[in-house]
Design a protein that fits this description.
Blueprint lengths: L1 H27 L13 H15 L5 H13 L12 H36 L4 H15 L2 H19 L7 H18 L4 H24 L9 H20 L5 H20 L9 H53 L1 H7 L19 H39 L2 H8 L4 H28 L4 H7 L4 H11 L2 H29 L7
Helix pairs in contact: 1-18, 4-5, 4-13, 4-15, 4-17, 4-18, 5-13, 6-13, 6-16, 7-8, 9-10, 9-11, 10-11, 11-13, 13-15, 14-15, 15-18, 16-17, 17-18
Length: 503
């Protein structure tokens, strides 16, 4: 594998350098960098042209300028832009903003898209499958700028106004309850009676839940509380155990339930620590959670069930910690909303200027600014992952070894998780790696719609000003990410498909 990585790295470096030459030549000819200086009054024109010419070395041939940039870039110096500002500083700010913008959207799109794709494949040609297909094609066809504008108007502005009197109308309650019931009824695998039971129970449960939340005005001061946290943790333990090993195996279920119990105890024990923590504290708590849950799965699983008990316990522990995190953040919603004039969902920018608050209030501020662009990117990207996953799953489900697994008496869960899903994810790996590599370059349209100054904006500014330095800084990050993540995809193939050997 080391030989393969070294060979791929050697080839990738030459591809990266060859592409950098092409990008540099194109960026120097995209626009005249002296166009604005030539429009100045005659008294200042010559001086401005001379300064820009010297700063950008416009008198030198293009290849000389390229090798000057390359020699500086190797040392980490990406030069200065047309105004004489340090490109490294601009890149650091832009890259940080891009990571905030695309990380959550990418993770959500991958998780939700693959999950819906798997369910759609398992329920092929059902009403759920046809509905998902229709919604996926609609989302895939929508222009991003139009989606962003609609979200700003009908989600952010209307939601902020609604929070002043958070009462849910009976029509809305009925619509959401009906959609929930149809989804649950479509997901359940069984006879018609089982699907009808799931539809009726989930519809009634959602209607009752929304009615209670509306009557208590929960949305104006939301929090989960210890009872909801405990029930959610136990439900997560059962769900993750079912996914990993099935409930017929007791040790994994016991490990997951103990991990949930430890999380519930930590909910009360860590109350002073979580009052206003630092980010480092949250990271350390996450690492401690993983370590404790790993130990629980290791000892309770034994030699026979350890392989399933460890992931069940770790997933339950991390999930319980995430629920506690959400509960603490929601508890600070009322104070944060009051500090931003009851407009918690923002439509412009990455943060509230000069805002100072607790850790949880600052987190809500970041979430309020990320909500709309993240949702817009998820809606557009979701369709791709859903359709690719569904097609890949259906192709694998028709293979001979899947039918053989069922004929040997393996449970449907084992067939789906161990054989179908693992092999079905192989082509999805390429899609994920390519998407992550490309979106690191920023989402230009999204940034423009929501007023973010990130990687896409830096590229756009460089093109508009005819300045190759910001464009090349953009290329270094985005091109490097594409090369890196494509190599990661190749390596991941060997772990997903034992038939592939990288030696």
């Amino acid at each position: 594998m080391l030989v393969f990585i070294a060979r791929r790295l050697f080839v990738s470096i030459w591809v990266f350098l060859a592409a950098s030459v092409l990008v540099f030549i194109l960026s120097t000819n995209v626009r005249d960098p002296l166009a604005e200086a030539r429009q100045l009054p005659e008294t200042a024109r010559e001086s401005a042209i001379r300064v820009i010419t010297e700063r950008m070395h416009l008198e030198d041939p293009v290849l000389v300028r390229y090798f000057r940039w390359l020699s500086d870039a190797v040392t980490g110096n990406l030069g200065v832009n047309r105004q004489g500002l340090d490109v490294n500083a601009r890149l650091e700010t832009a890259f940080s903003a891009t990571l905030q913008l695309i990380t959550g959207a990418t993770v959500l799109a991958i998780i939700i898209g693959i999950t819906i794709g798997v369910i759609s494949a398992l329920r092929q040609y059902s009403a759920l499958d046809q509905t998902v297909t229709f919604i996926a094609f609609v989302c895939f066809s929508l222009p991003l700028f139009w989606v962003g504008t609609l979200l700003k108007q009908f989600l952010a502005l209307d939601f902020n106004d609604w929070l002043a009197d958070p009462v849910i109308s009976p029509l809305f309650i009925g619509g959401i309850a009906l959609i929930t019931g149809l989804f649950c009824g479509g997901v359940v695998v069984g006879d018609r009676r089982s699907r009808i039971t799931a539809f009726v129970s989930s519809t009634a449960a959602m209607a009752i839940l929304l009615s209670v939340l509306s009557a208590t005005e929960w949305f104006s001061d939301p929090s989960l509380g210890p009872i909801v946290v405990a029930l959610t943790a136990i439900g997560g333990a059962i769900g993750f155990t079912t996914l990993v090993s099935g409930l017929e195996w007791k040790p994994p279920l016991q490990a997951a339930l103990i991990a949930a119990a430890v999380g519930i105890v930590a909910y009360f024990a860590l109350d002073p620590v979580l009052d206003d923590p630092q980010l480092l504290t949250i990271v350390l708590l996450l690492l401690v959670t993983v370590g404790i849950c790993f130990a629980i799965g290791w000892f309770l699983g034994g030699d026979l069930y350890r392989r399933n008990a460890i992931p069940a316990a770790v997933l339950t522990g991390v999930f319980t910690g995430a629920v506690i995190f959400v509960d603490r953040m929601l508890s600070s919603f009322q104070s944060y909303s009051a500090s931003v004039n009851n407009r918690p969902i923002s439509t412009v920018g990455a943060e509230t200027p000069n805002y100072e608050g607790t850790f949880w209030e600052s987190g809500l501020d970041s979430f309020g600014h990320l909500a709309l662009p993240t949702l817009a990117l998820v809606l557009i990207s979701l369709a791709t992952y859903t359709r690719y996953t569904r097609a890949s799953m259906l192709e694998v489900m028709n293979q001979d070894y899947v039918r053989t697994g069922r004929a040997k008496g393996l449970s449907e869960r084992a067939v789906v998780t161990r054989h179908v899903l693992r092999n079905g994810l192989i082509p999805i790996t390429t899609l994920i790696a390519y998407d992550i590599g490309t979106i690191v370059g920023g989402a230009v349209v999204t940034e423009q719609v929501f007023g973010w100054s990130a990687m896409g904006s830096m590229l756009f500014d460089g093109i508009r000003e005819g300045d190759p330095m910001p464009i090349m800084a953009f290329y270094v990050v985005s091109g490097g990410a594409i090369v890196l993540f494509n190599m990661v995809a190749d390596i991941a193939y060997a772990f997903l498909d034992p038939r592939i050997r990288l030696s």
